[in-house]
Amino acid sequence: MKSKVNNKLKGLGSEIEEQIDKKLNPNISIPIRTLSNIIYDKSTGQLTLGDKVSKRYFFNVAHAKKFMQTMMVASFCNDLIGQNIHASIRDMFYNLKRTLPETSENTFDVQSESDPIIIDLEVALDIFREQLHLTTDRKGIVAGNVIIKDRGDSIDWSKLGSGGWSIPSTVEEIEFSKVNADFVLVVEKNAGFERLHEDKFWQKHNCILIGTGGQPSRGTRLLIQRLNREYKLPVYVFTDSDAYGWYIYSVIKSGSMSLAHISDRIATPSAKFIGLTISDIFEYELKKCIIKARELDIKRAKELLNYEWFKRPEWQKEINLMIKKGIKAEIEALSHRGLKFMSETYLPEKLKKKAFLP
Predict the structure, then answer these.
(1) Which of 179, 182, 184 is nearest to 274 (CA)?
(2) Cα–Cα separations (whole angstroms), residue 331 to 40, 141, 214, 287, 336
(3) In this structure, are residues 280 and 64 in contact, taking their beta carbons and an 8 Å threshold?
(4) Which one from 94, 244, 247, 307 is the annotated catalytic residue?
(5) What's the CATH code, domain 2-135?
């Protein structure tokens, strides 16, 4: 893979060099990432980019700076791969930030300029940011009866105490030595993960427990997909009963608009939703623990109704129920029925009944 990525970077450089030799205006073709070029593919159940492409020219006042920035980032990544080292996207920003000689113009003023350039390279070269040896902060935790090899170290996810294994952004490099599980349970909240981890839910139900800490990172989504594809493990997602929690589920299942260019490599279309639903609030007597939905919550819920992947009758029912009742609930509301109600009653019942939403 390293050789493949290196060849793509060198190919980009060679293409620019060839354009210069032919006295052409040097340019880079980059697929457009706007909403107008994002398509929901019903056959795969994933968001994907369309075929619209834009060109970034060197001899164009509106493009020149971004063209320079793109080549700088590509060169930086080429050096990283050549030296076999990794750098954070923050490191890259500071390494490349400088003032151009005899001008007051900076290569990059803020990191919000350099971050989109990385994604431009991803889509232009059809590779992962992580394959360019660029990393981000760790986010997400996991526990289970699994042993992995990570950069030569053997790590047992079942023997990491109360903390679990912290998921890095470069999980495509890890090797699975042993995977003993019947399914993967993905939990939106760290508090929910801690409750289930302390209650040894993953041991009692032979599963892999993953906490996303809110919107899942790319590394976490790739890990979920790898466990699903490579080991055929069903994936069940457990979030708050609100529009934002449900959207987190859809990101894991179908991908996100901002990362539609890599949905096929980080989304898990077979994932199912295990809860929390609005119907659960009434079925499990949680009415005393509801939260009044804000106007923003209702607006977001109405948006979800129009998403192609939420047009299934089961989802339309739950989303409309939230809008009609004007309520929402957090997974911690299950603690109203007892601190171990989540791990000993709610989730086991859902699993037994296979009470999932598609």
Answers:
(1) 184
(2) 29, 18, 12, 13, 10
(3) no
(4) 94
(5) 1.10.10.10
Does the annotation mark 307 as catalytic? no
Question: Which of 267, 258, 200, 263 lies closest to 237, judged by CA?
Answer: 267
The span from the CA of 236 to the CA of 217, in Å, is 17
Look up the pTM and report it. 0.91
Copy the structure tokens of residue 151: 């950069």
Length of the chain: 358
Same fold, 2-135 and 141-353: no
pLDDT for 102 equals: 87
State the DSSP H helix or E strand holding residue 31, giving kind and residue range, or none if neither.
Answer: strand 27-31
Tell me the CA distances in angstroms from 223 to 52, 133, 170, 329, 345, one per residue in order.
30, 17, 9, 28, 28
Residue 113: both structure tokens together:
């300029």
pLDDT tens, residue by residue, 37-48: 999 998 899 999
Do 148 and 176 meet the contact criterion of CB atoms below 8 Å apart?
yes
Pure H helices in the chain: 2-21, 64-83, 89-96, 111-125, 190-198, 201-204, 218-231, 243-254, 263-266, 278-283, 295-305, 313-325, 341, 347-353
15 in Cβ contact with 49 (< 8 Å)? no
Q: Which fold has domain 141-353?
A: Dna Topoisomerase Vi A Subunit; Chain: A, domain 2 (3.40.1360)
Q: What is the pLDDT of residues 298-333, one digit of tens each?
A: 999 999 999 988 999 999 999 999 999 999 999 999
Q: Share the mean pLDDT of the chain.
A: 94
Per-domain boundaries in the chain: 2-135, 141-353
